[in-house]
């Protein structure tokens, strides 16, 4: 299903994933018969929501050219950068002759292979008339503590705390400008934080808890379990 607004996907995939302690970046680890990144890209492509998918890949990455999906006609490869934000900016630049300033861009981590078509369309339908955009997020079911040196200093009111997931959906021109203006700022850990630093107020859309990010070795088994449940 094509949304009524024009959307592009950007996938930062130039990280090394040190916490996985694996012999290759985590997006190339095997999961249910494919690599993690093949699942992620297949889900974005099969959602039907996007004009193209721009993927930021490290220039020294020997694994990407080996995957047939790297040659898919709707996949564009851009050089990755030092930080995630640099990789996203690079992928946005690769779309500059294709995307219009007011088109929507959904930035999605390569390491989140369980994203559903339902969440993609929910996000686009919820935010497509918004002036800024927003992110998929999850509320916390646990009580949250503020801690200094192993000691609890406060209990945080959890109705004000959400976990930021991806996709993160913003206007092409606004996101590019925000990432350029905040370049090198260590507070920019996701796309929303770049816009927040400039005074914008992104929205949240409640996402599904199975949209996990592969970070540690045990996450692969969890992702496989979620995929079986989704099927
Ligand atoms: O390391 P982390 O899990 O936070 O990375 C999130 C996403 O950002 C991953 O898909 C990773 O490949 C990507 N990334 C990137 N360029 C970097 C660092 C991370 O594209 N320099």
Quick structural overview:
The chain is 27% helix and 24% strand.
Please give a structural write-up.
- There is one protein chain.
- By secondary structure, this protein is α/β, with parallel strands linked by helices.
- The chain has a single domain (7-230), classed as Spore Coat Polysaccharide Biosynthesis Protein SpsA, Chain A, CATH 3.90.550.10.
- Helix content is 27%, strand content 24%.
- The protein is built from 6 helices and 11 strands.
- The strands form 3 sheets. A 7-stranded mixed sheet has the order 5-4-1-6-10-7-11, sandwiched between helices. A two-stranded antiparallel sheet has the order 2-3. Strands 8-9 form a two-stranded antiparallel ribbon.
- Helix 2 (84-94) packs across helix 4 (172-181) and helix 4 (172-181) packs across helix 5 (191-197).
- The radius of gyration is 17 Å and the shape is globular.
- The mean pLDDT is 96.
- It binds cytidine-5'-monophosphate (C5P).
- Cytidine-5'-monophosphate binds at residues 12-15, 17, 27, 56, 80-84, 87, 109-111, 213, 215.
CATH homologous superfamily designation: Spore Coat Polysaccharide Biosynthesis Protein SpsA, Chain A
Structural domain count: 1
What's the total count of β strands?
11
Strand line-up across the major sheet: 5-4-1-6-10-7-11
Proportion of residues in β-strands: 15-25%
CATH architecture: Alpha-Beta Complex
Helix content: 25-40%
Nearest-integer average pLDDT:
96
CATH class: Alpha Beta
SSE ordering: EEEHEEHEHEEEEHHEH
* Derived structural class: alpha/beta
Compounds present?
Answer: cytidine-5'-monophosphate
Helical run tally = 6
